[in-house]
Amino acid sequence: MGDLIGKMEPYLKALADNKYLGVAGVVLSALSLVYALYAHRQSKKSSRYKLLRCDVSSINVIRNKATLFPRLDVKFDGRDLDDLTSTSLAFRNDGTDVLRWSDIAPSDRSRYLLPRIQTPSSWTRI
Fold it and tell me: Which of 22, 75, 78, 104 is the most exposed place for a label (fewest CB within 10 A)?
């Protein structure tokens, strides 16, 4: 190993003593740093997107008069409920950019639709 370094020593000394090669190395490293910062900034700009996500989760608390909680007693208008479902909605921003109201088109405003609840008085007799 020492013999190999001994053979390379005159070449390494010539490279170290060459002032033009040193200046070229400094300029090349400065240019590569500037390019790295530019490429990093461009990658951040291109990965910005907006995505509004809605998560819905439901749990049947009472189904066919069977409940998950034995001591739970739920009544509506004095009658026991046959079925009861708890639903939660969560809206979140899944993108990398801030969502604003102006991002939603005026003809496509945010909205939620619920099914029409039928009561015994609205049922039709067959």
Answer: 78
**Domain-located, residue 20:** yes
Give the model confidence (pLDDT) of 51-64 as tens digits.
777 788 888 888 88
Backbone angles phi, psi at 59, to 5 degrees: -140, 135
What is the domain extent for residue 11? 2-46
The count of domains in the chain is: 2
Q: Tell me if 64 sits within 8 A of 84, measured CB to CB.
A: no
Quickly list DSSP for 89-107. Answer: EEEEE-SSS---GGGS-TT
pTM of the model: 0.39
Query: Are both 30 and 63 inside the same structural domain?
Result: no
Both 58 and 32 in one domain: the answer is: no
**Lowest-confidence pick of 47-51, 55-59, 96-100:** 47-51
